[in-house]
Design a protein that fits this description.
This protein is 50% helix and 14% strand. It is α/β, with parallel strands linked by helices. It has one domain: Diaminopimelate Epimerase, Chain A, domain 1 (Roll), CATH 3.10.310. A four-stranded mixed beta sheet has the order 3-2-1-4, sandwiched between helices. A hairpin with a 4-residue loop joins strand 2 (83-89) and strand 3. The protein is globular and about 50 Å long. 36% of the residues are buried. The mean pLDDT is 94.
């Protein structure tokens, strides 16, 4: 726990901009917009540099933080419960993918976990671009297969990536 506390304590918030500069954030937003044309899901992408030490002390892991972000970002707030959150906790190089119940009923969590592991491998190697866009491509494929678009396919959630700070 001590090493994790130190990682979170000394993870500067500006590092987020090193891995996700404004141009890449704009590309992610475009990728989400283009992805959502191919399916009825709604994707949110969120990056958090680190957790507060009090959260680390309480044993909060990436999954819990992702679930909290899922609620705070209102990813659940879609007509068909079709939201998906891709959440990155930089200090832990942890990716969590949280799907709302409409999608979770059709796609098993192990499929999301496999995509997250792929993204984590790229991120651990320092290749945030490949990890992000390969992950997005795989999420798009899953959603297109299990949640195809209908005649009415509104864009219900913002496509803009979110940089979380606590």
């Amino acid at each position: 726990m001590v090493s994790r506390m130190l990682r979170h304590l000394f993870m500067p918030s500006w590092l987020m901009w090193k891995y996700f500069p404004p141009a890449m954030l704009a590309e992610i937003e475009t990728a989400i917009r283009e992805s959502e044309i191919r399916h009825h899901g709604e994707i949110r992408f969120a990056v958090e540099t680190s957790l507060p030490l009090s959260a680390i002390w309480r044993g909060v892991k990436g999954r819990q933080a992702a679930l909290e972000a899922f609620g705070n970002l209102r990813v659940w707030d879609t007509e068909n419960n079709s939201g998906v959150l891709i959440y990155l906790l930089l200090a832990d190089h942890d990716i969590e993918i949280v799907a709302d119940r409409g999608i979770a009923a059709r796609v098993d969590q192990t499929e999301w976990d496999n995509i997250a592991k792929l993204m984590e491998r790229h991120y651990r190697a320092g290749d945030f671009r490949t990890g992000t866009f390969e992950g997005m491509r795989r999420v798009t494929e899953l959603l297109a297969r299990h949640f195809p678009p209908g005649p009415d396919n509104p864009d219900e959630l913002s496509n803009k990536p979110v940089l979380l700070r606590r």
